[in-house]
C-alpha cells in the first residue's frame, strides 16, 4: 500500500524547476501553485543538497535517542534554524526537531527514547460476559 501524500513527486519537481531553471521567485511559484512559500523553500533546499531523491515520499522514520541528542547538541552549539537542521540531517519534517527540544527540556534523555507505536493495549484481562444465547447453548 502506497503512502498518501499531499504533494506528489512530479508536482514538487515542477515547483523546484520553476525556481531553479526558470528563475522564478519562491513567492511567485507559491502564488502560482497556491501552496505555502515555506514548502517551496524546503523542497528547493532539499533538492540542492540531496537531489531528486529528496522529493520522493518517505515512510515514517524512527530516530534513535543518540541521534536526537546529537542533533539537539549541534543545533544548540551552532544556533541552527529548524530549516537548516532539517536539511543538514535529512529530516523532512522539521517540526519534529522542536518536539525533540521540548521533550528533552521536560523529560531529559528519557524524553528522546522512541515511543511505542499504535494503540495502547487495554483491558487485557477482559473476559467476555456470557449472553443469554450462550447460556441456552450450554443447557442443550
UniProtKB/TrEMBL annotation:
InterPro entries: Homeodomain-like_sf (IPR009057), InsJ-like_HTH (IPR055247), IS150/IS1296_orfA-like (IPR052057), Trp_repressor/repl_initiator (IPR010921), WH-like_DNA-bd_sf (IPR036388). Residues 67-119 form the Insertion element IS150 protein InsJ-like helix-turn-helix domain. Belongs to the IS150/IS1296 orfA family. This is Helix-turn-helix domain-containing protein. It comes from Flavobacterium fructosi.
Amino acid at each position: 500500500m502506497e503512502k498518501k501524500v499531499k504533494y506528489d513527486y512530479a508536482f514538487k519537481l515542477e515547483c523546484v524547476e520553476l525556481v531553479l531553471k526558470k528563475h522564478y521567485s519562491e513567492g511567485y511559484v507559491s502564488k502560482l501553485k497556491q501552496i505555502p512559500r515555506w514548502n517551496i523553500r524546503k523542497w528547493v533546499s532539499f533538492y540542492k543538497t540531496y537531489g531528486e531523491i529528496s522529493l520522493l515520499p518517505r515512510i515514517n522514520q524512527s530516530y534513535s535517542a543518540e541521534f536526537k541528542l546529537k542533533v539537539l547538541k549541534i543545533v544548540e552549539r551552532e544556533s541552527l534554524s529548524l530549516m537548516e537542521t532539517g536539511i543538514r540531517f535529512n529530516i523532512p519534517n522539521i517540526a519534529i526537531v522542536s518536539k525533540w527540544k521540548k521533550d528533552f527540556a521536560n523529560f531529559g534523555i528519557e524524553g528522546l527514547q522512541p515511543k511505542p507505536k499504535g494503540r495502547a493495549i487495554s483491558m487485557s484481562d477482559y473476559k467476555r460476559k456470557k449472553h443469554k444465547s450462550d447460556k441456552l447453548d450450554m443447557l442443550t
